[in-house]
Amino acid sequence: MLPILFAAALAGTLDQAVEARRAGDYAGATALLDALHPLVEPAEEGLWFYERGMVEDLTWHPDRAEPYYRTAISYGGELAMEARYRLVVVLDDQGRYPEAQSELSSLARERSLNPEFLPVLKIQAGVLALHTGHTASGGRLVKAGIKAVADPDRHSWMIGRGRAALLDTQADTAEALELTGRERRVVRNLRKRARTIAAVEKELYAVIATEEPEWITLSLLRVGDTYASLAIDLAESGPPARLSADQAAIYRELINEKAEGPRTKAYNLYDHGVTFATRTAWDSPAVEALRARRDELAAVR
């Protein structure tokens, strides 16, 4: 009778580790899993490796998560499919794009894959395309995948990932529009930059709608950086060559005043990110960066 009771207690402990991970107690989940591992039954080994990979993945260690996911895959079963999906994500997060694409293509061809999961994989395919510079095709894949997801609440994390990747790409496009050179070019690029930033903000609202803290904080940081970059570029843009020395000095003064608008916008976005993270008890490297950038801007405002 004792072995049966012991096995039941063991299963309960593994369930506790899963619950701790789902509740965001990653340190607690790790401690439980590591203490439990020598006692895990062979039938539970695949789940143990998957959960151990998850806590590494969710604490921003994709390189450490990878071997756990690969081992979980080797045990087969339904959980192996989930581990393969997570493996694609951590390879992407490490910048190992060809490997991620190969794993993703293989997974999408699996006959046992639930068809409901195909749009989720399409979003990830779009994210990979965006990460490798294929902006147009990546954007189409992400948007098509999001539109085809049957249960947005269940797959809100991947929807947020796709939205955040779109936002990041649009922000890169905005920041690439230089505010130097001839006056006509500067004016044209400034107008384009304003339109692109408006599209970035629209995507931010879509990210916020997912209610996923990871992508909300990352996106608030990215949009804040985009406004901060605009403020710097405005302040550093030289006066038109046609101006006299006195006129150039006045121009610089006016430009510095113009730069205050995006600088204040950046501060507010960073502050919103910190406030949101505090309210939801969310912590991540992005939150640390939000706090640091907010405090840095506060010191010079």
In short:
This protein has 301 residues and is an all-alpha fold. It has 13 helices and no strands.
Q: On the 0-100 scale, what is the average pLDDT? A: 91
Shape, per Cα inertia axes: elongated
Q: Structural class from helices and strands?
A: mainly alpha
The share of residues in helices is: over 70%
Q: Could you tell me the number of beta strands?
A: 0
Largest sheet: none
Ordered list of secondary-structure elements with their pairings:
Elements: H1 2-22, H2 26-36, H3 45-58, H4 62-74, H5 78-93, H6 97-108, H7 118-131, H8 135-148, H9 156-175, H10 183-209, H11 213-236, H12 245-280, H13 285-300
Helix pairs in contact: 1-2, 1-3, 2-3, 3-4, 3-5, 4-5, 5-6, 5-7, 6-7, 7-8, 7-9, 8-9, 9-10, 9-11, 10-11, 11-12, 11-13, 12-13
Task: Write out key terms for the chains shown.
301 residues; mainly alpha; 13 helices; 79% helix
Description of the molecule:
This protein has about 300 residues and is mainly alpha-helical. The protein has 13 helices and no strands. The protein has helices at about 1-20, 25-35, 45-60, 60-75, 80-95, 95-110, 120-130, 135-150, 155-175, 185-210, 215-235, 245-280, 285-300. About 35% of the residues are buried. Mean pLDDT is about 90; it is low at about 1-10.
